[in-house]
Write a structure and sequence with these properties.
With about 400 residues, this protein is α/β, with parallel strands linked by helices. Helices cover about 45% and strands about 20% of the residues. It is built from 12 helices and 12 strands.
C-alpha cells in the first residue's frame, strides 16, 4: 500500500471538510448580516415612504426624498442579491409559481425601465409574438428579476442605438409552452473569452466601455439570473461580439394556466388606499422603530382601526390570551419567544376566537425553511421586511377577520 497516497487522501478529505464548514459559516454569516441590515432598513424605507406622502413638501424636497428612497431600495437589492446567491448555491432556493397574464406582466416589466432608456435616447422595443400564451404559471417576481437585470444591463452598456425584448414560443401544447425571452442591444459587446465568465459571481467584464465607475454593479446579477433560470427548469445564455452588441436568451418551459373567473377591471392594479373597517390589530416586534413605522403606516391606511403593540413574544402571548384581535402582525426573530413559538402557543388556547386569530409574519428572514415553518403553524402569509405598504394593506384586507367571521368563530 502506498502510504503517501493514503496520507494525501486523508489530507484532501480534511481540506474538503474544512471548506464545507467554511461555506456553512459563510451562509450563516450572510443570513445574520442580512437580518441585521434589514431591520434598520425597514425603518429607513418606512419613514421615507411616510415623508414622501406629505402634501406640504416642496418639489425640491420631494426630489431629495425620492433620491433617498432610491438609494435605500438599491441597498435592499444588494442585500437580497447576497441572500439569493447563497440560497441558490446551496440548492435551498424555492419559487412561488402562480397563474399570471404573461403579456400584461411582461409589458409592466418593460415599462419599469422605459423612462431610463428614453432618457439615454435609446430606441426601446418590446415584441410579444402572437402564439405566446396569455396565461401561464410562473413566479412573477423572479421572472421580473431576471428580465429587469437583462434589460438594465443592456441599457447600461448601450451608448446609442436600441434595446429590445422579444418573447416567442418555440413549442406549445395543451399543457405547457417552451418560451424564449430574448434581450438584444446594440451596445459595446463582450469578448468571446468573457462570455461564460460574466455568469460567475462577482466577475465584471473588462473593456473601454466598462471602465466607467457608474457602470459597475456588484457582479452578482447575471450569476443570480442564471441560477433563477435553472431553478425554473430553464437556462440563460449569451451571444455577443465586441462592437456589435449582445443577445441574452432566457429559455424556460412553463405550464399553461386558466385565467381567474373574475378579473378586476383594472388588471389587479387598484388597491384600496384607505380601509375604514374597524379592525383590532396587534403589532409584535422587539424593535421599537419597526413598531413605530408599522403603526404610523397603518394609521394612515386604516383610520378606524385599533392598533396595539407588544415588544416581544411573552407580552404578545399575554395580550392574545386576554383580548380578541382580528389580526396579528408579528416578527419571527425575537429574543424571548420567536414568532413561530408565539403562534404555536396561541393555537393551544381554549377560546376559539383567540385560538384561530390570523397571523401575518413580517420578517427579514425569508429563507425557504423559515417560510415553511410559518406555514407549518398555519400563518396566513409571510411578508418580507422592509415591507411594501400596498402589499401589506392587501394582505390585511385578505386575512383580517370581519364581524361575521368573528361571530362564526366564537360560536364554533
Amino acid at each position: 500500500m502506498d502510504f503517501r497516497l493514503a496520507d494525501a487522501g486523508v489530507q484532501l478529505s480534511e481540506a474538503n471538510a474544512k471548506l464545507m464548514e467554511a461555506n456553512r459559516h459563510k451562509d450563516q454569516f450572510l443570513a445574520m448580516v442580512s437580518h441585521a441590515m434589514r431591520t434598520p432598513l425597514n425603518g429607513v424605507k418606512g419613514y421615507l415612504g411616510l415623508l414622501a406622502d406629505r402634501p406640504e413638501l416642496s418639489p425640491e424636497t420631494k426630489e431629495e426624498v425620492s433620491g433617498a428612497q432610491n438609494a435605500a431600495s438599491h441597498l435592499l437589492t444588494v442585500i437580497n442579491d447576497f441572500l439569493d446567491l447563497s440560497q441558490i448555491s446551496q440548492g435551498r432556493f424555492s419559487l412561488s409559481p402562480q397563474a399570471i397574464d404573461l403579456h400584461h406582466t411582461v409589458r409592466q416589466i418593460c415599462r419599469t425601465l422605459e423612462s431610463h432608456a428614453r432618457s439615454m435616447d435609446l430606441s426601446y422595443l418590446l415584441c410579444i409574438d402572437d402564439d405566446v400564451p396569455n396565461w401561464v404559471r410562473v413566479d412573477p417576481d423572479r421572472l421580473a428579476q431576471i428580465l429587469i437585470n437583462l434589460l438594465g444591463n443592456a441599457i447600461k452598456f448601450t451608448a446609442q442605438g436600441e434595446v429590445s425584448l422579444r418573447v416567442s414560443a418555440d413549442h406549445a401544447n395543451a399543457r405547457q409552452a417552451q418560451l424564449r425571452f430574448t434581450v438584444t442591444d446594440s451596445g459595446a459587446g463582450i469578448a468571446a473569452d468573457q462570455i461564460e465568465r460574466i455568469f460567475e459571481p462577482f466577475y465584471q467584464a473588462q473593456g473601454p466601455r466598462f471602465n466607467d465607475e457608474n457602470m459597475h454593479g456588484n457582479g452578482l446579477g447575471l450569476a443570480i439570473s442564471r441560477g433563477l433560470a435553472q431553478a425554473m427548469g430553464g437556462d440563460l445564455q449569451a451571444q455577443s461580439q465586441p462592437g456589435a452588441g449582445s443577445c441574452f436568451t432566457l429559455t424556460v418551459t412553463l405550464p399553461l394556466a386558466q385565467p381567474p373567473l373574475a378579473k378586476a377591471a383594472t388588471n389587479g392594479q387598484a388597491v384600496l388606499d384607505i380601509d375604514t373597517h374597524p379592525y383590532r390589530i396587534l403589532l409584535v416586534d422587539d424593535q421599537s422603530v419597526n413598531r413605530a413605522v408599522l403603526e404610523a403606516t397603518l394609521r394612515k391606511a386604516l383610520p378606524q382601526s385599533v392598533l396595539e403593540q407588544a415588544d416581544g413574544g411573552i407580552s404578545a402571548i399575554e395580550l392574545l390570551h386576554d383580548h380578541d384581535y382580528d389580526l396579528v402582525l408579528i416578527d419571527l426573530i425575537m429574543p424571548d419567544l420567536s414568532g413561530i413559538e408565539v403562534v404555536r402557543r396561541a393555537r393551544q388556547f381554549l377560546h376559539p376566537l383567540r385560538r384561530d386569530v390570523p397571523f401575518i409574519a413580517l420578517t427579514a428572514n425569508v429563507a425557504p425553511e423559515a417560510v415553511q415553518e410559518c406555514l407549518g403553524v398555519v400563518m396566513a402569509e409571510v411578508l418580507p421586511k422592509p415591507f411594501n405598504r400596498q402589499g401589506l394593506l392587501h394582505a390585511i384586507q385578505a386575512h383580517a377577520r370581519r364581524p361575521a367571521a368573528k361571530e362564526a368563530s366564537a360560536s364554533a
